[in-house]
Amino acid sequence: MIDSFFYPKSIAVIGATANPKKFGNAVTINILKDKHPDIDLFLISPNKTEILGLKCYDSILDVPQPIDIAIILVPAKIIQKVIDECIEKQVKGIIIITAGFSEIDQEGREEERIIAEKCTKAGIRVMGPNCVGIQNIDLNLNASFIQKAPPGNISMISQSGSFGCASFYALQQEGLGISKFANIGNSIDVSFVDILEFFKNDINSKIISIYMETIKNGKIFVNKLREIIPNKPLILLKGGRTSIGMKAASSHTGSLATNYQILRVAINQVGATLCEDASEFITALKTFSILPIPQGQRIGVLTNSGGSSVLFSDKLEEYKLDLASFSENLKYKMKDYLIPLVKLVNPLDMIGGADEEVYYNITKLMLEEESLDIVVACVVIPPFLEMDSDEHYRGIIRAWNDTKRKKPLIPLIFFGENFDRLNQFAKKERAPIFYTPDEAAYAVKILINRATILSKLDRELSN
Amino acid sequence: MIDSFFYPKSIAVIGATANPKKFGNAVTINILKDKHPDIDLFLISPNKTEILGLKCYDSILDVPQPIDIAIILVPAKIIQKVIDECIEKQVKGIIIITAGFSEIDQEGREEERIIAEKCTKAGIRVMGPNCVGIQNIDLNLNASFIQKAPPGNISMISQSGSFGCASFYALQQEGLGISKFANIGNSIDVSFVDILEFFKNDINSKIISIYMETIKNGKIFVNKLREIIPNKPLILLKGGRTSIGMKAASSHTGSLATNYQILRVAINQVGATLCEDASEFITALKTFSILPIPQGQRIGVLTNSGGSSVLFSDKLEEYKLDLASFSENLKYKMKDYLIPLVKLVNPLDMIGGADEEVYYNITKLMLEEESLDIVVACVVIPPFLEMDSDEHYRGIIRAWNDTKRKKPLIPLIFFGENFDRLNQFAKKERAPIFYTPDEAAYAVKILINRATILSKLDRELSN
Hints:
2 copies of one chain form a homodimer. Chain A has helices spanning 2-6, 23-32, 79-89, 106-122, 161-174, 192-201, 218-228, 243-253, 260-270, 278-290, 306-318, 328-335, 356-368, 391-402, 420-429, 437-462, and strands spanning 10-14, 40-44, 50-51, 54-57, 69-72, 93-96, 125-127, 133-136, 141-144, 151-158, 178-183, 207-212, 234-238, 273-275, 299-303, 348-349, 374-379, 409-413. Chain A is of the alpha/beta class. Chain A has a 7-stranded mixed sheet, with helices on both faces. In chain A, helix 14 links the parallel strand 17 (374-379) and strand 18. Chains A and B meet through helix 5, helix 8, helix 10, helix 11 and helix 16 of A and helix 5, helix 8, helix 10, helix 11 and helix 16 of B.
């Protein structure tokens, strides 16, 4: 059933309008744009003959063919009639974008209960209300009123539509993207678990991510995570972790937020990546979208900036991780490429003069070194000695490519956000950039955590 | 004496060169660029007649006029001779950029001891060695080999040159800037305390910031902070907080890092802003560069995105802060501008349709409201209803300007980094943007901390 939401053959927009200041217009325009030829779109708007060149119907019952998904944007007060018509039409799924239900008052809660009851009885799944819609970027389908996500391998369930919207801005900037997106809003029927089950089996959903404010049955949810973790990384950010946050969340999605401490223990145990803020969430998506999982936790660091590796090392220890010792073999090989001032210790401070060649050679030696599992290459872009702003990064990525990207490589380009050529190159190469020591250390931490989980699951299987 | 470093009448670059792959070239070019007419520059480079159109001298002793500051870039092995000549020339201060001293070995440490001893005896102050130089942006003076900082009201002492360099990238992007910058490197003579004393009395140094890896006399340092805090915010980031970080720092600046736990307690007591990572450091600089200190800690929040205010509220509680309750008076006035769906609670979720006018009116009412001290305006830029990407922010800033910027206003534009028009407008208006809920909450926290410190000092004074 959930697949009908992401792969519909026909969609009806109930509450379509030509008024560009209304969400019914935004949804219609978004679906029409680059629409997949196999999807039929029907607009329902009483007393209109045509909107955006498409014929309008007074009711979904007038549409002369079956409808998979009905997207409802009519005012809350006439919603029951529209729902009844969808039931009569035997649609497979309903997305209620309209807001003003349990997040507002008890009356709204009662309306939701009635809708859920009659749709369940009719065997129809309902997403929302109070949501922005869904997207399947693999099909170019944007059945929502927010912007189309950039294409990629991440699938996301968000309880907040605007959180999805904001994430897309961040993903776009990082050169990352979405396969499928659903905003479940007040979630009267279709739940996190339903969509997780679908993402679990969807081959394009390589990474699964969740923004959650409240969960109805934590146990079932955690069990569903347990099924997913062996095959896909799962990244979760919980809003409403504290009592003030919970109060804010309750007026947002109309339900009481869950006790975070209990949830946290369960989610960590099961091996999902639980982020504590929005920056960590994006860093986690970046990390798992692009980097392979390490074979162990032996970390090697090279840098042209003592400060950046000192700050990185601090953060590492806060995460209870440590740096590896360089093998004699590695030191012997590295020496050839370094000036005598450089001390052969980890972190390896190659000093400000290190250029593309030095970065390439040392990164490659570390990536090839058997006694290292993860390589962190720190750069402060030198504004001197006629060096190109992106040359160090190019050297690092060249080494990564030449070693077939087998090991995770963390390029830390300290505060390098506004170097366009660098960022363009990263997107072209589909390579990551981490911009602060804390971001780089967080990436290392979650990669190692996932490696640990996977090897634990492996051991359990072979026992 | 320290003022000679920032306001020299004459500078000698010892080790100047025409080779663009050498630091002696970078420093010369940087000083020459937009050079203040009152500063005379002399190049010392034996066996050269001219570099970059300037006459060269074999020795500083050949320069026919007094020299305030000698900047030394010659190799470590010939440094003692050059120092002796500077002493004979009776320069006021020496900046040793050359590296390869105590950060390398015991022999280097001994060299440093000799230099410090003879310069002290001669009454000459020494900055470095192993540093990038200094900058006084008020004079357009870049006596370093890194890029010139953007102009502004922040003065910075960094023990790492590359940390300064990276910070400048971040400041540039945020529309912030530097008044004076010093990189003290191995710090054999001129210390944090010496420069702090100078910044304390320098009217253009409105905010003082420090990146520190090691401190020789913590007690004197903390006492100096105590003198500064009543008049200027002081922001400090410590590298080498952990044992791994300390090990990394020791090969970086050649000295053992300080026990962080002890330092932390002292610094917090004295009321400086102690950051735990580089992102917090930049956020703190942004906050104190632009925002006024609040009169209290009553926080009001408006938003068009439930998710962003939920995440912000969570972070606030982690910082042990809370949201204010809206007064009946404020609710009464706000109601006129809001649609009926909006619940009049803090955080105020005005829902996705709120536009420039709504943001202007509600922000203004909150800024004018007596029962609120700080206003946080959250936006997820709506990609729908034909809204401009910067209109909400423009409304917010218009309200701030119309209320004469009396209260601190925190605009949280969730993941809005890549909206050029928005960022251009912010720079033009000299207004801040915070890009994540955690960043916004951190800004609120440090503003309230500073307000608390100042009122405590006030009370102590009047007792």
